[in-house]
């Protein structure tokens, strides 16, 4: 890996900013995972209350097909193909 030297005393600052950027990415990924779990739990709860797939879709502002995917994942079915919930 090539690491350029910035000079003018900025190297340390650049390294700090790069690490802050990476940490922000890690935090964002964790937040996406939490949001996906919450969305699945909400879909499952609405389903348990007897709402139809269309009604759940309306509440979540997603398509009925997406509701089906969320419920499949909440039930432990359905493969993960790179998409988050």
Q: Count all strands and give the number.
A: 0
| Count of alpha and pi helical runs | 3
Largest sheet: none
Distance from first to last alpha carbon: 35 Å
Fraction of residues in β-strands: under 5%
SSE topology string: HHH
| Helix-and-strand structural type | mainly alpha
The average pLDDT score comes to 88
Please state the CA-atom Rg, rounded to the nearest Å: 20 Å
Question: What can you see in these coordinates?
Answer:
- By secondary structure, the protein is mostly helical.
- It has helices at 11-48, 53-60, 64-74.
- Helix 1 packs across helix 3 (64-74) and helix 2 (53-60) packs across helix 3.
- It starts with 10 loop residues before the first helix and ends in an 11-residue tail after the last helix.
TL;DR of this structure?
This protein is mostly helical and 85 residues long. It is built from three helices and no strands. The two termini are 35 Å apart.
Question: What is the strand and helix layout of this fold?
Answer:
Layout: H1 11-48, H2 53-60, H3 64-74
Helix pairs in contact: 1-3, 2-3
List descriptors:
85 residues, mainly alpha, 3 helices
């Amino acid at each position: 890996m090539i690491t350029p030297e910035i000079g003018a005393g900025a190297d340390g600052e650049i390294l700090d900013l790069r690490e802050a950027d990476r940490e922000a990415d890690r935090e964002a990924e964790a937040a996406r995972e939490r949001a996906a779990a919450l969305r699945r739990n909400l879909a499952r709860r609405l389903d348990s209350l007897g709402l139809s797939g269309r009604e759940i879709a309306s509440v979540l502002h997603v398509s009925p097909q997406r509701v089906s995917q969320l419920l499949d994942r909440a039930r432990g079915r359905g493969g993960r193909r790179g998409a988050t919930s």
